[in-house]
Queue: 3 jobs
Job 1
Amino acid sequence: MAKRDIVVIGGSAGSIEALLNLLRSLPVNLPAAIFVVIHLTPRGKSVLAEIIDRQTGGLPAKQASEGERISPGRIYVAPPDRHLLVANSHIHLARGPKEGLHRPSINVTFRSAAATYGPRVIGVLLSGMLDDGASGLWEIANRGGVAVVQEPSEAQFPSMPLNALQDADISYRLPARGIGTILPKLVTGEESAEEKECVPHEHQPEKYSGFSCPECHGPLFQKEGPGPLQFRCRIGHILSLKTLLDEHTSTQERKLYEAVLALEEGADLALFTATRTDETQGRQLKQEAEQLRRHAREIKKLLEEREMSAID
């Protein structure tokens, strides 16, 4: 049975309580290193490591630092605005391109752990919106590791666990405390997860998708091959189909509001100019202002009446 001593845990909205419940269930002598990635605001100071230390009373937790050596029985927390990569015997922090609009990205950490430690990895995905973590769990399972998700009915925001269940070979779906109970058994070998064949990583060809990256507006290339559908731009931003759709929807709304602003400002400028010209031109400018306001009202109506389909 493979030794499983690398545990990577990811979560987003609604995941802190689940994370704390999970960690409270772990023994203080767990012979594994734990890496925690929670979506954080980039400009804020994270106190998550201190919260874990104060409220769980178990394994010591600290915010990860660049080049830090990995030791069992420790919890390493990703800092804001940095990807946490699990390298061979040490941690690497990077401010590389966002993945799924996030930095830190759960997928980045999961994928790095899978690439470095293969079947020694246990990946855990908790509550959150959209689908960060799904492709990372797929990579963990694909390389012989164990993939675990929080029971969606318990998760405050079940989208991330549900998407992982659709995209990856999940070994366990459990409540947070149940995950905390089974993790030590997976680490020590008392619980025997189904052994999976470790599939070597191969370069997967990409083709131009016809879409543009919502982050940098460069061309997006679609990955072809097994695993969840993903898009990557030349800069390195990576998005799932659902995240791409969600971000483009936000972009459409933002651009339409920008159009309303430009039309209304144009109407104000036309009226301002009308007071500083002759009567004929003034009348034409007032008509132009009314036309611009009419267009602005039509776009506002479009925004108010727009209906969007829910994507599971």
Job 2
Amino acid sequence: MEKPVFTGSFTQQEPIPEAAIEAAVAVMRSGRLHRYNLVPDDVGEVSRLEEEFAAFTGAKYCLAVASGGYAMSCVLRALGVGAGDKVLSNGFTLAPVPGAIASVGAEPVFVETTEALTIDIDDLAGRARASGARVLLLSHMRGHICDMDRLMEVCDTLGVAVIEDCAHTMGAAWNGTPSGRHGLAACYSTQTYKHINSGEGGLIVSDDAELMARAIILSGSYMLYGRHTARPPVDTFENVKLKTPNVSGRMDHLRAAILRAQLADLPAQVDRWNALYATVETGLRNVPGLQIVERDPRERIVGSSIQFLLPGWEEARIRTLLAQCAARGVELKWFGAEEPVAFTSRYDSWKYAPEQKLPKTDAILAGLIDMRLPLTFSTDDAALIAGIIRDEVQGAIRHAAE
């Protein structure tokens, strides 16, 4: 009997909503794309987006910027991180996170990963003490959120400031608190494969007035910071405006207009992602040789991707599985490859960071498989995809036993 094949695309996103297209066209017709190019009495699309995202997260202040990577480097600079400083971060993350640390001249100190794909808090405490690092750039990698209550207790005790990378957790929460609201500041991405899509873009939120005043000046506000409406009080800028460099990375009105309608739709989109995630997870549960990544019930997830583990599988068998799934239309990514592939790399790929050894993380990445779940999929698609993976894993297990 011929095996079923999936014919959809793992990189095809949904169209931009009509309301967002109309708002973008209005901006283009105005010719006023720069965030500070405004008519009197109009705060502009960027400021409106900042107001709405601050309300969405419950933060006091918000700044829209050019990318998620810029958001992270901007917050690090605003916090005073610079050359030679050590910054803690996840051993399991993507290149823009250590890249942001390196961009300000600092050194990444990588922390071990648990089987839940979250930062190992015990290892974090040990590496913070050993390195003297006073900042953690915490990546909620692929949407997996650690025990944030315990993490903050440990970091507060050690005097470590927490910056959250929420590129994969916009709309998620830990124990009822929105992701990004535990640390000093949080950074989000609006790149195409994230939860709202402007091609590129980023957002910063914080309740710290001086940090956000520095971030606004850094982003290239010149002396126009008073036009921001989700900013700290104007007098906060007096101590920082002439001491903080302009490292331009503003968002423009066109991207902000595209994002505002999507932000309004995000809660409904989260429900759709989570239905896809639950369908795939159910289809893969109890498959011999395949380990589900169990989610903590205190997490409210955004299931825009799913991961599973193949414990003890050798490289050749994993590569065969990836090829067989690809032949049936299912695109899987593997974090165990020695060389980076497309967006996928691992901590020992980043040669700008000092060489470090994370044996626990190595063992997890060796069998870690990752798959996108775009909203162009239906739950029937998700069930078919899970069935294909299940069939191929079971086939590989049978072949190994022969």
Job 3
Amino acid sequence: MIYGLAIVVVFLLLLQDFLLVALLQVNFNKYEEDQNPDFPKVSVLIPCRNEAQSLPHCLDSIEKLDYPKDRIQFVFGNDRSTDETAEILGAWVAGHSNSILVEVVEGDGKRRNGKANALFQMAKSAAGDMYLFTDADCKVPSKWAKSMVLAQKNADAGIVTGITHIGAESLFGNMQAFDWWLSLGMVKVMNDLGISVTSMGNNMLISKKAHDSVGGFEGIPFSLTEDFEIGKSIEKEGYKAVHHVSVDNLVETLPQQNLKGLLDQRKRWMHGAMDLPMYWRAVLAMQVLFFPAIIYLCFLHPFEGVVVWLIKVVIQSLFIYLFSLKTGQKLKIASLFLFEIYYLFTSWSTIVYYFWPSKTDWKGRKYG
């Protein structure tokens, strides 16, 4: 019985990975066109909480955005920071007439998490027809705004999710980067099949019309993953959601610095994952259950088990590599084989940590 189940799980995972590679190549939707339309006015919303170290890099990147200066507005939110965040933002806003600084006040923590509360208050000052979202620890490319707007216009979408990668030099950071490539690659493939999965709050566009249709971040149910929740709510209103992946909208973010930070991040994401439809949770479960299944088969049939495991690693690595190429990135193939060890450990550690009776930590705030 157990042997048969192990065979089925391993076979389905291999089939799934093979289909991911095939669909990535034959069904990859591009939403940009080489055109120069009349660009709408956009508001870029960046919530900040104790981001003094990363803010200069973020501000430098948005300074270089290639978008008509009279058609773009920057809305920053200082979410009760205790470091120099407020001073850095104040100085930048003072030198840019198209920007505004919102001092975020304490909200109702039972209705909205901290970030959703900040975005709800910031949106009141947003004057654009399109809202672009990123985080203070991110760097955006110069064509980011144009790329996201073009995708929205060409797809006639209410919400556009971009692509984000982790910029890292350490081994731990690189492993996190591969994890993001794999996860977001799967999201992209599913979205191009017409199955929307999630949104990413550090690289996201929402039309004002779609935003207002759900009451903004105040109107959505409480969730630790507010980006996922608002995306789901917007789709329920009948708006189209697309996942846009290109060289021009690749945002760079920072890795978690230690295992505790990584597990806190994953625990928060797991809360969103548990609200996904059953078929998507089955896909995620297949990824996790592969490891005990293949270890069991390796114990019974060492040679055959190792060969099958290597085949899985090769297909998975090929998928990650090919997906990264869609954004002009070239990953080191050799490092991708190390990722399997990391993936085994973090997959099961995340599950244990999610069910562990502790609160979820987000920037010093405790939930749960």
